[in-house]
Write a structure and sequence with these properties.
It is a single chain. With 464 residues, the chain is an alpha/beta fold. It folds into three domains: 100 residues, Rossmann fold (3-Layer(aba) Sandwich); 178 residues, Cobalt-precorrin-4 Transmethylase, domain 1, CATH 3.40.1010; 132 residues, Methyltransferase, Cobalt-precorrin-4 Transmethylase, Domain 2 (2-Layer Sandwich). The chain has 18 helices and 19 strands. The chain has a five-stranded parallel beta sheet with strand order 3-2-1-4-5, with helices on both faces. Strands 10-9-13-8-14 form a five-stranded parallel beta sheet, sandwiched between helices. Strand 15, helix 15 and strand 16 form a beta-alpha-beta unit. Helix 6 runs antiparallel to helix 7, helix 8 runs antiparallel to helix 9 and helix 12 crosses helix 13. The protein is globular and about 90 Å long. The termini are far apart.
Length: 464
């Protein structure tokens, strides 16, 4: 290890910035965030540095820098924009016994600046030793994506519990278990989602030796591509003790679940339910009451034909802490994956989501409203009822030539798309009867499915 990672306390400490360039401005902003007392040594200043001087936030010395100016400085940053001037300044700083950082000149540096990720009190520094700043920035972006926005709030919340934990919890082992429960469970999730009162109540339970409460996370897994999972979904998938997952959640998604979590399949396909909805509700509640972190993982979005509302209603009646995490619903995922805009100023001014099946079986709706030619219909679970659906729309007045698309396994590597017209929808659906989950898109925009735009105009004219 060539460089020792350290964090300097620069609150009100004097720091020199030699140079008035754009790079000097970037470093000065960081120093001000850290509370440093900055003096700029430069003949000319970047306009924004000049503004900071006028605002009284930094000092400026335009005269030639003297050795005596440097002795009191805690650190020195050099960014003159001139290689010879940088080297001369670095030598002078060292003679004064002050550590120097020279912008983009790692060979002249006593210390280097890492790529920084900041979340309140949490600061992460990433360094390649100056060998590849671009790689450090790339790694910073990855770390940035994994850290919750309110992580700093969690640090402050944990700090507020430290004295109580020392006083109320006797052994070091018990305290360790307490902090594990606080930082990796429902308490942390409540803080990270801004529910501070809930977090405080849960933490108080733990402080007074009550059994830790469980929680249920109803999480949307998106349409199938793991890259479409939300950051929050990733986080909760790594915290779960037990996972109940649906038919639409593929193995690629399950690979992101914590490896030692118990996995229970509760999927439903037509005419075959591994568990009834009532049984699923009871399972979620029972495991949460036993203190487990329960992940209910659903394809798409839990609240778009995912029965998430029914589960949330049941769990609330049972007074169980429940968090719902939205996912990219199949309509949006399939539309993006096939190049079908669900709305379009020329072809569709609205979009309606439908299900091909209801609790009582047959879909009951106002077909005349659905048969307007200036909208898009997206039908979930509609393969088996495609013929009936098409017949009702035709009777209601939707033209036979209305474009349709069937998207099977949308967003996945084995995605399959079939396009045609409304009068042929039943036959088109037959081609997918032995395939995977599929979505029907009905409306002029369906003609745009990964299409050669030049050849679409005539088809759309016929669909008017």
């Amino acid at each position: 290890m060539r460089h020792l990672p350290t964090f300097f306390d620069l609150q009100s400490r004097p720091v020199a910035m030699i140079g008035g360039t754009a790079m000097a401005l970037q470093r000065t902003r960081l120093l001000l965030e850290a509370g440093a007392s900055v003096t700029i040594f430069a003949r000319t200043l970047h306009p924004e540095l000049a503004e900071l001087v006028l605002e009284g936030r930094i000092r400026w010395q335009a005269e030639t820098i003297e050795d005596s100016d440097l002795h009191e400085q805690r650190l020195a940053f050099i960014a003159t924009g001139n290689a010879a001037s940088d080297a001369e300044a670095a030598e002078r700083v060292r003679r004064a016994g002050v550590a120097a950082n020279v912008a983009d000149r790692p060979e002249l540096c006593d210390f280097i600046m890492p790529a920084i990720v900041e979340r309140g009190e949490v600061t992460v520094g990433i360094s390649t030793g100056g060998a590849s700043p671009m790689l450090a920035r790339s790694l910073r972006a990855r770390v940035e994506a994994t850290l919750p926005a309110r992580l700093g709030e969690l640090v402050r919340f944990a700090s507020s519990l430290r004295q109580s934990a020392r006083t109320l919890i006797g052994s070091a082992t018990q305290r360790r278990r307490f902090w594990d429960a606080v930082l990796e469970g429902p308490v942390a999730e409540a803080v990270l989602t801004g529910r501070d009162e809930t977090a405080r109540a849960l933490a108080d339970d733990l402080l007074h030796n009550e059994s830790p409460r469980g929680a249920v996370y109803i999480v949307g897994a998106g349409p199938g591509d793991p890259d479409l999972l939300t950051f929050r979904a990733h986080r909760l998938m790594q915290q779960a003790d037990i996972v109940f997952y649906d038919e639409l959640v593929g193995p690629e998604i399950l690979n992101y679940v914590r490896r030692d979590a118990e996995r229970v399949y509760v999927g439903k396909i037509k005419s075959h339910h591994s568990k009834s909805q009532d049984a699923i509700n009871e399972l979620l509640a029972r495991h949460a009451k036993a203190g487990k972190r329960v992940l209910r993982l659903k394809g798409g979005d839990p609240f778009v034909f995912g029965r998430g509302g029914e589960e949330l209603e049941y769990l609330r009646r049972e007074s169980i802490e429940t968090v719902v995490v939205p996912g990219i619903t199949a309509a949006l995922g399939c539309a993006a994956a096939t190049g079908i805009p669900l709305t379009h100023r020329d072809y569709a001014s609205s979009v309606t989501f439908l299900t091909g099946h209801t609790r009582d079986g047959e879909l009951a709706t106002d077909w005349r409203v659905l048969a307007r030619p200036d909208q898009t219909l997206v039908v979930y679970m509609g393969l088996s009822t495609a013929g009936s659906l098409a017949a009702k729309l035709l009777v209601a007045g939707l033209p036979r030539s209305t474009p349709v698309a069937i998207v099977e396994r949308g967003t996945r590597p084995d995605q399959r798309v079939t396009t045609g017209i409304l009068s042929d929808l039943k036959a088109l659906a037959e081609r997918h009867k032995d395939g995977g989950p599929a979505l029907l898109i009905i409306g002029k925009v369906a003609a745009l499915a990964n299409a050669d735009i030049a050849g679409v105009a005539d088809q759309l004219k016929e669909a008017v």
